[in-house]
Task: structure prediction
Amino acid sequence: MSDFHYAVDGDGVATITWDIPNKSMNVLSLAGLQELSDHIDTALADASVKGVIITSGKKDFAGGMDLNIIARMKEEAGDNPAKGVFEGVMAMHGVLRKIERAGMDPKTLKGGKPIVAALPGTALGIGLELPLACHRIIAADNPKAKIGLPEIMVGIFPGAGGTTRVVRKLGVMMAAPVILEGKLNDPKTAQSIGLIDEVVAPDQLLARAKEWVLSAKPAELPKPWDQKGYKLPGGAPYTPQGFQMFLGASAMVHGKTWGAFPAAKALLSAVYEGALVPFDTALKIEARWFTHVLMNPSSGAMIRSLFINKEALEKGANRPKVPDETVKKVGILGAGMMGAGIAYVSAMAGIEVVLIDAAQEAAERGKGYSQGLLERAVKRGKSTAEKMAEVLGRITPTTDYAALEGCDLIVEAVFEDPKVKAGVTAQAEAVIPETAIFATNTSTLPISELAKASKRPEQFIGIHFFSPVDKMLLVEIIKGKATGDRAVAKALDYVRQIRKTPIVVNDERFFYANRCIIPYINEGMRMVGEGTEPALVENAARLLGMPLGPLQLVDETSLDLGKKIAVATRAAMGNAYPDGAVDEIIFGMVDEGRLGKKANAGFYAYDANGKRQGLWEGLSDRFPPAETQPELTEVQHRLILAQVLEAVRALEAGVLEDIREGDVGAILGWGFMPWSGGPFGWLDIMGAAKVVEICDRLSAKHGPRFEAPKLLRDMAAKGETFYGGTARKAA
Ligand code: NAD
Result:
């Protein structure tokens, strides 16, 4: 069975059709690349062939390289992996360059055969790098199609010539969003920025491609960068404009990544160095930087968590084997901040929504949140008035529980108070079908306790959203002691419908995400209390690739919430409560009214419009900095281990059942150092033995919260890794 088919019509136009058997989307494998190369050779050698169309037999063109192959490339490259990877990448350049030169005489650039890419739909990664090597790119006018190079999102960069070609085609400025941010465009937008050449009606695609092949003039074929006098649009590095642009780009990349993401820096280096030399040398430079990125364990870890495992979880890797539980009508109890957001994402997914609050006005306000988001989307051209009316039409705001009749799922988001929650549980269960699943969005209360208010605890579950609901990608599903398989399946099917990523965890204090993030915030505040410069703490976190330092994070989530959680945790834990030193800091700030962003005053200062300024000047009076400041690495280790050790304990305690969920959940839930692939990814990169050593040092100095969990110590002794598999079984 082959991935590409070759046919020549009566007019001498060869069509190479990419159509991998038994797959809905084309992805490039090494065998596929060889087939493509052979077909190109055939077409170039056959005098009766006038030109070539490369297209797809599917509704889309291609989704990219098979990322599993990239992840394995290094392992399969033998004793000298860097050499093997580099040679593999250069072989790919060879095939694409053959397409680009299409048999031209290298000196006169004459005698080439026109090769056109005809894209019926989505073209991503190598699925766009291949067309970029062709002489023309024509796409079907399919607004759902996505065209772009998203490699950077999974810790690599376009390494099959995409970087070099897009920069030479568009100039650095216009190329930046495409290669550096991985921005995807629909065909019309892709054409408007010059990424592709032409957009035609879908039923005209192949006819137009053939017409172009038969009418293409020899002068249309050579790429500008292969012609004499070519100049990089917008200026090469050593021109006045180029200088400013590269300076700006470098600052922008560093501002965004803080140097924590190897791929962004490597990409920029490939662009800069490549812009100084002829095209073929630039490809070689791109290949070297690409190899450099693949050799860094970060790329494999990111691909694993952000692509392979994220997708596996979304497709139901841990879904119990029970029949489909797609949600048709959801009842949302409480139309506050969370309820309103949950109503929005549900209605957007086509689910009928009943939005209940204690007062009609509050319920209406909750629906108003959706209206606000949709109006903004219409204004920005992202949605239409009809779509808005359709989505809003699905949301019924009411105080009447009778409206919950026929709901197959309830999501409760009332006040964080067990009595209030028990009340609404009983009220809803009096109306909903016996088969309905009841979910609570509590962030702190044990699911198994709340389930006691339910007549059907096996149908009771936690579905924990993060705020803001419409933006956050993760949903944490929590099984109570009595929760049954159907409830889990319902929750997973619902999360799939609203297009978020689920993790399924067991019921212990703070579940998984909050369990890990609270110690991070606390460690940051504790260090400030000890006299560490707040700026050192915040910058140490950003340099690790955390999206927010712990002080900014607590400002965002509010210090009074922190106080509430501290009081409740202390009450639950009694003498075992470890965070007394932190409480003094939080409680003192709260007493002064410095509640964080919402009060325009917290660890940071804010202007009258709520815009964050620098760290609050009064911090140094309140927490006088110590004369000797700790090393950056020590601050960083404390911030990382506060989270990572908690993740390991969650695994040991059975809260986490699958390290993939621990890693994906950490990155999507609270932005844990994405370059590391997650807490378990980080542990594997570091090695358990090294981490145990750091734990021993930190626990001797700072206390038992840094003691290495037994699981880690055992792994260190046996030289095991998490993704090696044994630890997962042991846990
Ligand atoms: P909120 O105060 O904004 O909203 C709660 C809503 O519930 C209010 O509109 C209130 O009028 C309504 N309500 C109270 N009692 C009711 C009753 N008996 N019947 C109907 N409606 C009633 O709170 P929120 O921030 O949306 O939080 C709601 C739940 O979500 C809490 O359990 C909270 O722990 C959880 N949660 C919050 C966040 C967050 O970041 N805010 C994140 C995850 C989970």
Q: What stands out?
A: The mean pLDDT is 95. Residues 329-508 form a domain with the Rossmann fold fold (CATH 3.40.50.720). Residues 57 and 447 are 49 Å apart (CA to CA).
